[in-house]
Amino acid sequence: VLGAAGAGRWKRSGGRALTLSVSRRPGPFCPQCGLAVEPTFRFCPACGGRLPAPPEERTEPAAPAPSPPPVSSPAASSSPRASAARLGPRSPRKPRAGPAVPLPADTVLTDQGGRLWKLVRLLEQGGCGLLYEAQSASGTCPQKQSYSLKLDAKDGRIYNEQNFFQRAAKAGTVEKWKKWHSVPLLGIPNCVGFGLHADSYRFLVFSDLGRSLQSVLSDGLHLLREKAAFQIAVRVLDCLEYIHENEYVHGDITAENIYLNPADLTQVTLAGYGFAFRYCPGGKHVALREGSRTPHEGTLEFISLDSHKGTGPSRRSDLESLGYCLLKWLCGTLPWSDELGKVKAVMEQKERYRKDVRCLLQLCFRQRSIPDALQNYLEQVLALQYEDRPDYAALRQLLRQPLEKMRASAYDCVDVPVVP
User: Fold this and answer.
1) Residue of 208, 238, 252, 415 marked catalytic
2) Class of domain 211-405
3) Which residue ranges are recorded for the region named Disordered (predicted)?
């Protein structure tokens, strides 16, 4: 069956050229969902999966000892199957673009809509890009209003993040969801612009995100009270239900990707969609296949077993990661926190404690009492099958029960001291 790219070549080249074109160089398709993609793409715009490098970017092995060449046509020698035989099951790929070099303050960037954005100061710098405070410089947005501008290498994970926002997180879609589900607050970032800069950077502009929860914890707080931890977890669950219902999973739940607004602590935002994965393209759940993706992608301490094994993350993956985050926020450490340099050891411990949640909790809480809500949450989440739809309402209610005993709501101001 011809994809769109193949059909285009048929129309342009005529029937005689069709067989030769396909056999000599197949059109680029996503190996996971089958979508035809542009040759320059590194990630599939439909499912978010990593695409194979073009043939010219693959490294050929050393030539074998001379032998009489077999008689074959040029088309046969360059077929996909022949290439796979020469290169082996996993050929080397072109290295991912390195970390973006910070730009100086007062640099002005122009988005695809022609609006100008001026960088004010660098707020955060990590493996998934640079986060700046920015201001509008074009007069089309309030001049004194602050924005968050994320900047990364053009071909980095920010491309995947931009794709997520264009497909699944438009402001109008989020507002409809809030009304339909009677959710007073939903922490999906509002992406107000995107573009390229200097042919080497890609950027996204958001309404002000505030401060990451990780930066707040690093101020000296270290641990969260149960009230704050459960408030944040309920709000993140709301966000996960939204993105899951829109065919995506987040793929990297961590305090670095959760933001609090110092000026309004009712605002909790789930950001950082560089590892977002379209687990259900067109309403059909991807199959469970270990090794179909690069293993261990995301923040090693909190990623799910599915991500460790190179399986496309599913809904249970995000909920599992949120459970590990809750444990870290309440206890300060996880059994594998000191072994993050040993990837296999981390994965083995997660595999072990998946079958013994009580033991995991006892190790983390030691002599302290274990919250029933957290134990019930982890037991339910870790019992999910790969394609199961979680009962979000039931999981939220588990975490709301201790809040109700404290006469608090998940939508109150989060019980965390945050400085600007």
Assistant:
1) 252
2) mainly alpha
3) 54-106
pLDDT in tens, 41-67: 666 666 666 677 655 444 444 444 444
Residue pair 227/265 in contact by the 8 Å Cβ criterion: no
Residue 271 CA to residue 208 CA, distance in Å, equals 11
Can you read off the two tokens belonging to residue 118?
A: 């001026």
Provide the CB-side half-sphere exposure for 59 (13 A, CA).
Answer: 8
* Alpha carbon distances (Å) from 9 to 4, 6, 29, 81: 9, 5, 15, 22
The answer to whether 235 touches 303, Cβ cutoff 8 Å, is no
- Domain boundaries along the sequence of the chain: 1-55, 108-207, 211-405
- Burial-class residue 188 by CB neighbours within 10 Å (0-12, 13-18, 19+): buried
CA quadruple 72, 77, 81, 84: dihedral sign: positive
Residues 6+ positions from 12 with CB-CB distance below 8 Å: none
CB 394, CB 401: distance < 8 Å:
no
Judge contact between 318 and 240, C-beta under 8 A.
yes
Q: pLDDT for 18-47, tens place per residue?
A: 333 333 334 566 766 666 666 666 666 666
Say whether pLDDT at 374 is over 80.
yes
263 three-state secondary structure:
coil
Q: d(Cα 4, Cα 7) in Å, to the nearest integer?
A: 5
**DSSP label of 36:** B
**pLDDT for position 348:** 96
The yes-or-no answer on residue 388 being catalytic is: no
Strand partners, 191: 206
At residue 126, the pLDDT reads 80
Closest CA relative to residue 77, chosen from 30, 41, 139, 24 = 24
- Our separate counts of H helices and E strands in the chain read 14, 11
Contact assessment for residue 389 and residue 201, using Cβ atoms and an 8 Å cutoff? no
Q: How many CB atoms lie within 10 A of CB 346?
A: 21
* pTM of the complete model: 0.78
Q: What is the CATH number of domain 108-207?
A: 3.30.200.20
When mean pLDDT is compared across 43-57, 330-344, 361-375, the lowest value belongs to 43-57
DSSP string across 185-238: ------EEEEEEETTTEEEEEEE---EEHHHHIIIII-S--HHHHHHHHHHHHH
3-state secondary structure 264-290: EEEEEEECCCCCCEECCHHHCCCCCCC
